[in-house]
């Protein structure tokens, strides 16, 4: 337990660390990677290049300090982080490495302004946070290993199918190389894949939502070809699209993630996605239509038909299930796209226009897509009177403790 003196020091010095947070975190990553280059195999180097991971960690440090009197207020965020860390294979000894270099960086960047008491207080606070996360992650590893078909660490899988879904999204069906079963998952969860990236000379790990319902034999992911810095292709997505073929092997971590539907519930659900954010929604939808009848509304926004993945599957589901409603928005329709046939509304997703179809009594609302898209839909749902507790969303990338 942290003493009150420690908490007071952390709270008092948090604004200073926030002011210099980006410089401290930049120094920290440089220092740590020089001492432990093997950790580049875990960290997302594209986010490093763009400065996104530095900003996210700086926000995380400040948010923890600001809430140190009431750490329970961060429980939902810490749960998300623990799932992400478990999917990356983070281990307790790595927290020690991070702590060593983070504390050293605070001292080296701020110099004499940082006293021994300040460093000691932050060391205790960091150790407390590391213990919380390591304990949560240990429980996740244990649960994953105990599930039928489950495992911890990395497991070899074989690509059995590679199917283009649109101009920018391709699905991969993956089966274990050992021929054994795979663990079931909650609709909405993700798996991590690890690949060697020759351009970087190291391994990179990415999370991809599972885009099918559990079947015990295989997993399906649907990957968007991402654009990296300066218009160059994303390191991992371009490798998967251009170089990974049927019968190739790839390393997978077990399913994790804290964004999923309650499959035992019968209350309505409303799925709201933008772009490739529809992939976890497809898994949710398939499971919801297989379980006892429940109303489902699906709202999706895309630029046009060229990049709209799985459109035919959604439309077939809308024709087949009377309790399923589909609302499609295209903000840049192609000349060949027909309103009322290929899509329902021109423009960005506007929940106000379809509120009669989505304001369902007792419904839960799930949002996935780019962060600005999710913020817009989240705020609109609040304006429409939906309680915060019924709004759920998924953030990929380094948006820890996002403002």
Automatic annotation (TrEMBL):
Its EC number is 1.14.12.17. SUPFAM superfamilies: Ferredoxin reductase-like, C-terminal NADP-linked domain, Globin-like, Riboflavin synthase domain-like. The record marks 29 as: Involved in heme-bound ligand stabilization and O-O bond activation. Heme b binds at residue 85. Its cofactor is heme b; FAD. The keyword NADP applies. The active site is at residues 95, 137. NADP(+) binds at residues 275-280. Binds 1 heme b (iron(II)-protoporphyrin IX) group per subunit. Binds 1 FAD per subunit. Is involved in NO detoxification in an aerobic process, termed nitric oxide dioxygenase (NOD) reaction that utilizes O(2) and NAD(P)H to convert NO to nitrate, which protects the bacterium from various noxious nitrogen compounds. Therefore, plays a central role in the inducible response to nitrosative stress. Consists of two distinct domains; an N-terminal heme-containing oxygen-binding domain and a C-terminal reductase domain with binding sites for FAD and NAD(P)H. HAMAP family: Hmp. This is Flavohemoprotein.
